[in-house]
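Hello Y.,

Per our agreement to keep a running log of every chain we model this quarter, I'm adding this entry. I've kept the format consistent with earlier entries: sequence first, then predicted structure.
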Amino acid sequence: MSHAVMVALYARVSSEQQAKRGTIDSQIAALVERIAVDGEQIVEDMRFVDAGVSGATLIRPQLERLRDSAALGLVDRLYVLSPDRLSRKYAHQALLMEELSACGVQVVFLNHAIGVTPEESLLLQMQGMISEYERAKIMERNRRGKLHGAKRGSINVLSTAPYGYRYIRKQLDGAPAQYVIELPQAATVRSIFQWIGMERLSIGEVTRRLAAMGIATATGKPYWDRSVVWGILRNPAYMGRAAFGKTQSRDCLPRVRAQRHSADVPKNGYSTVRTDPSQWIEIPVPAIISEALFQSVQEQLAENRKTARQRSHGAVYLLQGLVVCGHCRYAYYGKKISTAAAKGHQRHYAYYRCIGTDAYRFGGERVCDNQQIRTDRLDDLVWQQVVELLAHPGRLKSEYDRRLSILEEKEKTSFDTAALERQRLQLEKGKSRLIDSYAEGMIDKADFDPKMRQLKVRLEQIDHQIQESRRNNAGQSELFLVINRLEEFASAVHDRLDTIDFVMKREVILGLVKRVEIHKEEILVVFRVDPDPGFNADENSANSDAGKKSMQDRTRRNHCALGSSLGRSHPTAILHNSRLKPFADKPEQAPVCNPVSQKHQHPFMVDLIKERRDIRIQYPVHLLAFQRDR
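Predicted structure for the entry above:
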């Protein structure tokens, strides 16, 4: 007695758009019709349909289920529209056909009859190879077309417009596609960037604030997911430079461990990874925020990630995450005194130690010989510098507000950095073509020399403009990060100077100090803002130019001076007893101490040579690791 034939069908389309258009329904209808013509019936459970899954991979949910059913002997005959529905790659086709044949499954293709002769098998193999070639050719044409469009600045190659913009399609009159700013959404985007870059909120705080304000997402949801806000903050389109090629596809990466709410077999047989920004192709679009604000947000996001890791484990040391080695550039970490090193004494302190000095991390050999430093003494040193910085918060904030407005005005009148870099690239290409023309004898030396001089002059001008633009953007981003919290920090420090706790100290330091570099002969404390912004700029015309050169102030202290200043908090005592000397290019120029002292209560330093924002301190003896207390 013969048993009933168990039939199954397999259908597939590559994209979600094809699935929505009903292309896969036509496949299923044709297969069901053929099954009925053959006098068979199919149950619902034996329909294996992969909608929106690429045929270039074997990792497909329904194909996996089909192969499992065939291995269990549940399928006798399989109906497929064509070999390329089974797979786009010939090697995969051959593998599947061999596997199904070994399981006793008869495969029926609607547009190709499978025979047993060598010629028919060869024809099937050729169809598989042609399908694979066709797919590769289509993908390559699509890739090159998009790349060419991106280089021409076409918006068409980008996906849908991000939140804050509306995509306008290419018009019949030839007007190109473009992004148009949606004003209500753009206001929300601007607020999000300001909350992160100026108020220094976390992404979680931003999502809660948006929900409290009743601002809906682009899809109308009343709550914002953190990943949506993170994507907005990372998108360079908002500063007027949309990017093509930010991600690329690669083979699916293996999972290290199981993930919750995720299928065992991923829907897509590939992984998407972010490419290096140098490979992006920038396309100009209308800007919603300034480049300086965008860069300050990127710095704040990086800091948030670092502090989040520290919070998850709990910060133990005041300068944790801020101390770096000036010799090898590795980070310093806190390490307690071991029992062996204590030699029976009570040692209630630790050392900041360079990672490069740990031989076990680098195959048994050190990569750095920089010194370790006692945590308590370096903490006191940096905290003292912070207290000095916050001596005049009101005047500091007023000065930085003034500088920020100047930088913003410069930004309005200056060229866009990306546009300047594109101009420079075109000039370099023109320079290469000019050299080639001269080498091939198309122009003589009399024509070549003046044109080459003009190109070099123009390149120097553009390089200068690029440096100036980057300097302005860097200054703006630093001011954005600090300016709104100066008075808050100053109030916390001076109102509770004796009772301020570890957590508040660390918050103030993280807000004002960018990093602490440990060099072999000195310590470099790099603030986010200039410790001496030059309040005299308006009162003293001789010093007004010094305040415009940069935002830095370097001073050097000798051994005794630093030792005597650690215990003082009054700015007058610090300046007079520390014998501050400018770290300057011209030693004969002395700093002016309080040139308008009749108008101010506290003296301060004005560097006539160069205004800087990092403080260099020569190593005091008591900070060296080898001068330990016994």
